[in-house]
Design a protein that fits this description.
10 helices; about 230 residues; mainly alpha; about 70% helix
Length: about 230
């Protein structure tokens, strides 16, 4: 019976580079053309690999999409963590979460189209379950931050779960409308200004007098090292 031999570190690095190139290509092509316009041949050509390599790594087009979404949501944790380094104030962290999420969607427009796309044939496997779990975690983290602001007396009592759902939906929706119709403007700064105005209006409306001096703070992006920290598979 032959024992399995693990690929050498050099081969692993090449496999990882190919995998990253294919996911980068899928992310770009999906963002530009949507699900129906995405073809495995185009992914392979853009990534400079064979079509067979795409199938070996991901099985089919749906597998590439699921893997690309999972990779972005892996990185989402690093983006959202930036909202908590700009301030210790819960209400300012709620506002900063919106800016951090904007950074994520601006850098990865694939995620906007993925969340609104009608894809009924994605594989029902652990990868898809993981995507759902990560999105749920983003929602729960935002709700917890809203609860912290309520507990601190900075926000009037509201249903944090419902507010978190509204905020995530609104942020995704603004990016989607901007990408499809340009309703929020076509430049990244136009979208940011739109979302900044909405955050000011919304939080001013639910902020208590004790939090009247809250600020809308700029949020940095994660370092390239954090954003690119993906495991070798």
């Amino acid at each position: 019976m032959k024992s399995e031999v693990s690929p050498s570190p050099r081969i692993q690095r090449r496999q990882q580079r190919n995998r990253d190139a294919m996911l980068d290509a899928a992310e770009q092509l999906f963002a530009d053309h949507g699900y129906d316009g995405l073809r495995v041949d185009d992914i392979a050509e853009t990534a400079d690999v064979s079509t067979g390599t795409v199938y070996v790594h991901f099985g089919n087009k749906e597998g590439v999409i699921a893997a690309a979404a999972g990779r972005i949501l892996d990185r989402a944790e690093h983006y959202m963590a930036m909202a908590y380094v700009v301030s210790d104030s819960p209400i300012e962290q709620v506002a900063a979460t919106g800016a951090a999420y904007h950074n994520l969607l601006e850098d990865h427009p694939f995620l906007v189209r993925f969340l609104v796309a009608e894809i009924t044939t994605l594989p029902d496997d652990p990868a898809l379950e993981s995507i759902h779990a990560r999105i749920t975690a983003l929602h729960e983290q935002l709700a917890a931050t809203i609860d912290a602001a309520i507990a601190a007396g900075q926000i009037t009592p509201i249903d944090s779960q419902q507010m978190a759902t509204f905020l995530l939906g609104a942020w995704n929706g603004v990016h989607a409308l901007s990408a499809r119709l340009g309703l929020a403007g076509t430049r990244p700064e136009d979208v940011r200004d739109c979302l900044d105005q909405a955050r000011r209006v919304l939080l001013t409306g639910i902020a208590t007098e004790a939090a009247s001096d809250w600020r809308l703070l700029p949020v940095p992006r994660p370092s390239k090292t954090e954003d690119a920290a993906d495991p070798i598979e």
